[in-house]
Task: structure prediction
Amino acid sequence: MKYSKPNRKIVIAVDGFSSCGKSTFAKMVAARLGYIFIDTGAMYRAVTLYAIENGCIENGILNEERLVASLDDIHIDFRFNPDRGASDIYVNGQWVEGKIRTITVSNLVSAVSAIGQVRERLVAMQQEMGREKGVVMDGRDIGTVVFPNAELKIFMTADPEVRAERRYLELQAKGEEVSRQEIVENIRQRDYLDQNRAISPLRKADDAIVLDNGGMSLEEEMEWFDNIFSTLA
Ligand code: DC
Result:
């Protein structure tokens, strides 16, 4: 498909609920446009993994003070992985892409992402990564906080049961032993925490376009995107 508009590079913000397929969608859009794809959820997950591996979790509870005191020691970077067609995330030079999507990390990430100092650091990094535009960034607050002036904002949603089933199949394929029920509970809990945290809660930006991809194939999602994109001035 050839795009005629817009000629300039833009920022595309993709926000929405957990396990909506935001990253898959954003990655495909980025590949279509030759843009950089940035998964900001991976950044919150990477900080959570650091917290787990460095004594900031005690009896399943996050020691917020200790994590905040460690923030200067956490260096995150992305490196392109041609096999995945996307960038892998590294913490202090260590490849952690394979460790950040476990249910253990998923159960703790909402607490980590509710900390103001964590958000401040990661938002600043995200803004720097999108400074030159030509990015598709997915997360929860991209259209509201990180890039409130993004030229295109998409808000993704789907029924929690549909999302849980997708996440279940994904984790099963990776060999992780986890029940459907545990995933449904995790998704419902994260939906609640993401929408109700004090700082940068998940909400649709007023100018975002809603994509409910519940019954849609990836091909249909791309058709939907092509239509939207072709209307941009
Ligand atoms: O997209 P994900 O499920 O991998 O994100 C993991 C968690 O990180 C999610 O529960 C909320 C948080 N998050 C956030 O608070 N802000 C973002 N921009 C991206 C993710």
